[in-house]
Amino acid sequence: MLWKDLGLRLRALLFRRRMDEELQEELQFHIQMQARKNRRVEMDPTEAMRLAQLQFGSCVCATEECREQRGISSIEIFAKDVRFAFRMLRKSPGFTAVALLTLALGIGANTAIFSVVNAVLLRPLPYANPGQLVFVPEAQPEAGISGLGMSYPTFVELRDGNRVFSAIASLGGHALVLTGYGEPSEVSTVVVTSEFFTVLAAQPLLGRVFISEDSQRGAAPVVVLSEILWRNRFGADPGIVGRSITLDMRPYNVIGIMPASFHTPFLNQTNQVWIPLPQDPLFSVWMTRPPQEHWMAVIARVRPGISSAQVQAELDTISSRLAKEFPAEKGWAIRIEPLQQTINGDVKLPLLLLLGAAGLVLLIACANVANLLLSRATSRSKEVAIRIALGAGKRRIICQLLTECAILGMLGGLVGTLVAYCAVAALVPLLPPSLPKLHSIRVDGWVLVFAFVLSLATSLVFGLAPVLSAAGSDSHKELAEGARAGESAGPRRARAFLAVGETVLAMVLLTVAGLLMRSFAQLTSVNPGFEPNHVVKAMVSLPQFQYSTPKQWAAFSEELMTRLQAQPGMQDSAVAGPLPIGLLHHRHLSDRRQSIAAGGNGRHR
Amino acid sequence: MAPDPSRLDLLQGTLDLLILRALRSQAMHGWAVSERIQQISQHVLQVNQGSLYPALHRLEHRGWIKAEWGISELGRRARFYSLTASGRKQLEVEAENWSKLSDAIARVLRMA
Asked: Higher-confidence residue: A564 or A435?
C-alpha cells in the first residue's frame, strides 16, 4: 500500500502537467454532457452551456480538490521551498558567502579530523579476524612495570606450552644495508619468528612465507621482500624469487614477496624486508640471553571461541611454571591486550582531543551563522508577518525556514568536504610517521556519511534560534511595528545569548591553544647543556659482519674522525651513540639500529 | 439556482458508497455516475459536481476504483471508472455499515 501510494505520488509529481490536462479534459467532458442534457429540455445551445457551467460550479475549486486528493502537495511544497531557499541565498550573496565560508571551515575541519579518527581508531586492523589478534607483553605489577617484551626462553616456553593461541610470533626491527642491484642502501628489516605471517593470516604476492624449518639453526638464510622494494629495487622481476640478495654482505635467498597491502604492525615501512630471527646478525645473538631480559615484542592470534579470561588463566599457569624454572622471573606475569589497543596506544587521547577542539570550532561557526540569520530575520520579520496575515500556517513558515537552513548547511557541508579533502592530502605528510595506519587515512564513504550527518545536524543547531524566533513573533505587532526598523526583545535576547556563548567557546579554545603553544615554546627553549648552533650531524650505519666488535667500531670512528678533521670549514668533530636528546626508545620496539652517529661539532670559521 | 426542498444534500461519507454502488455493474464516466445516482434516487439525492470528481480521484487513489480512457457516447474521449476487487469488498463493508446505521436510526425514530 505504501509503495503504491508512493508510486502514485511520484507519478503525480513527474507527470503533473499531463495529469492536469487530463483532469481538465475530464471536467470539460462533464460540462458538455450536462449541456447536451440541458439542450434536450429545449434550451438554446449557449444557454444550455452556461447553465451547465453554473450547475457544475467552480472548475478551479474542483481541480484544486482533485489535486489535493492525488496527494502531491507535500512533495510539491518541498520542491517549492527548496527553490525559494536558493532564490533567497542568491539574493543576498554577501550573507551567503560569509555563512558558507564559516560553515565550510567548521565542517571541513571536523571532517578532516574525523577521517584521521576513522582510519586510526574506528577502522579495524587490516588483517583477517582482527579481533583475535593480541599483543602479549610481560609485566611486573609489584614494581609497576607493564608493557615490556619477553626473553627468547620465555617466548619458547609460551609458544610450545600454550593451548590458547593458534599462532604466536615475535617481531623486532632495525636496518640492514642492501648491496648489489644499484646503490647500497639501508632497508627497514623486520626480524620475525617463523609464525609471524600465520598470526596475521597474510598471504604472499609471490613465492612463500616463512616455515618453521627456516628458523632452525643452520638453515639457509632466507628473506621476504615488500612489494614496493621489489618494484623499486628489482624492477618487479618475478625471477627474483629463488635468487639471493646481499644484506650486510651476507647472501639471503629470496623466498617471497609480500603485497603492498600488507602492513607490519608497529614497524610499517614501504621499503621493507622480513628475515627469520636466527638469521639476523643483531638479534640472533640475543636469543641466548636469560629470561630477565625483556626484548622481544610478541603478538599472537587467539583460537576462536576462547575468552580472554581463559587466555589469561593459561598465561598465569605458564608464568608460575616459568617462575619455578627461572627464579629471576618471579613476580613477572604474561598479559594480553587487544592488538588494536596497543597499536593505537598513545594516539587515542590526542586524536579525541583534536576532534573535540574541531567540534568547538564548529559550534562557534554555528553560533556565528545563527547570529547572521537572526540579524537577517529582523529584516525579514515583515515578510513573515505578511505571509502569516495572508493565511500561511506557522508550520509552513517553520518548514520553509528550516529548508533554507538545511540548504545552507548542505552547501556548507559540500564546500566543507572539499576543504577536508584538501586538508587530508596536506595533513598526512605532516603527521608523525609513528601514527598507526597512516597510509589508510583518506576521505572514504564513512567520512562522507559523517560529513552529511554533521551538515544536517549543524543546520538544525544554527537554524533553531532564528526559526523559533521567527515563528514565535506576533504577526499583528510585526505589521504594526513594520515601519519602525526596531528589533523586538526575543531575537535581541537570543543574539546576546549567542554572542556570550560564542565568546565563552572561543576563550576555551584560545586558552587550550595558548597552553599548548607555551608547552611547545618551553620545550624548544630548554637549555640542552650544549651550544646547538652551527652543529651538523650525520648518521653512519656499519654492516654487522664487517664491524661486529667494539674494537672495529672504534677503529672505524678514528679513521672517520681523522678524515673529517682534514676537511676545511670543520672546527671539531665527535662520534656519539646515541646523540644527545635523540629519539631513544619507542616503547619496547626501539629502532635498535646498530649505528655510529658522527656528531660533527664543526663551527664554520 | 434556488435550493429545491425535495432534494437532499448527501451526508458526509455517503458519496463514496453511492459511487461504488453505481459502478458495481458496469464501468462509466463521471457524468454518468452522477446521472445514475440521481435517476435511481428519483432525483432525491443531488450529487454536488464539485465534490464528485475529488471523490472519484480519492477512491482511485485508495485503489477501490480504477480509471481508463475510453470513447463515450458523444464520440469523445472520456475517463471510465470501474470497480476493482478491493473496491468490491469495500462496497460490501460500507453497504453493510450503512444498512445497520439506517436500521438503527429508523428504530430510534419509531420508538421515540
From this structure: A564
The contacts found for A24-28 with CB under 8 angstroms, 24 or more apart, are A24/A63, A25/B77, A25/B79, A26/B29, A26/B30, A26/B53, A26/B78, A26/B79, A27/A56, A27/A59, A27/A62, A27/A63, A27/B53
Is the pLDDT at A492 greater than 80? The verdict is no
| Distance of residue A397 Cα from the nearest chain B Cα, in angstroms | 27
Q: Which of B1, B61, B78 sits opposite A71 (nearest CB)?
A: B61
Angle made by CA atoms A519, A523, A524, in degrees to the nearest 5 = 120
Query: Torsion angle of alpha carbons A210, A215, A221, A225, nearest 10°?
Result: 30
Non-local CB neighbours of A440 within 8 Å, separated by 6+ positions: A119, A123, A126
Q: Between A55, A58, A69, which is nearest B58 by CB?
A: A69
Give the mean pLDDT of B35-45: 83
Q: What is the pLDDT of residues B1-30, one digit of tens each?
A: 444 555 555 665 788 888 999 998 888 988
Q: What is the mean pLDDT of residues B38-64?
A: 82
φ and ψ of A180, to 5 deg:
80, 165
Q: The complex's ipTM? A: 0.81
Is A309 within 8 Å of chain B by CB? no
Of the candidates B34, B54, B63, which has its C-beta nearest A62's C-beta?
B54
Name residue A165's beta-bridge partners: A302
The partner residue sitting opposite A56, judged by closest CB among B49, B63, B76, is B49
Q: Which residue has the cell 614477496?
A: A257
pLDDT at A21: 82
CB contact under 8 A, A62 and B49: yes
Q: pLDDT, tens digit, for every residue of A315-336?
A: 999 998 888 888 877 888 899 9
Distances (CA, A) of B94 to A309, A361, B50, B54: 67, 62, 23, 19
**Is the CB of residue A545 less than 8 Å away from at least one CB of chain B?**
no
- Determine, for residues A32 and B76 on separate chains, whether the beta-carbon distance falls below 8 Å: yes
What pLDDT is recorded for position A36? 82
Any chain B CB within 8 A of the CB of A492?
no
Residue percentage of chain A with pLDDT more than 90: 23
pLDDT tens per residue, range A213-224: 888 877 889 999
- DSSP letters along A76-107, please? HHHHHHHHHHHHHHHH-HHHHHHHHHHHHHHH
Which residue is closest to B52 within chain A, CA to CA? A62
Q: Report CB contact under 8 Å: B30, A30.
A: yes
Q: Give the per-residue pLDDT at A37.
A: 81
Asked if A21 has any chain B CB less than 8 Å from its own CB, the reply is no
pTM check: above 0.80: no
> Nearest-CA residue of chain B relative to A19?
B57
Q: Residues B28-60, buried b or exposed e (16+ Cβ, 10 A)?
A: bbbbbbbbbbeeeeeeebbbebebbbbbbbbbb
* A27 → chain B, closest CA residue: B53
> Cell match 615475535: residue?
A170
Residue of A nearest to B48 (CA): A56
What the block records as the C-alpha cell of A240 is: 627474483
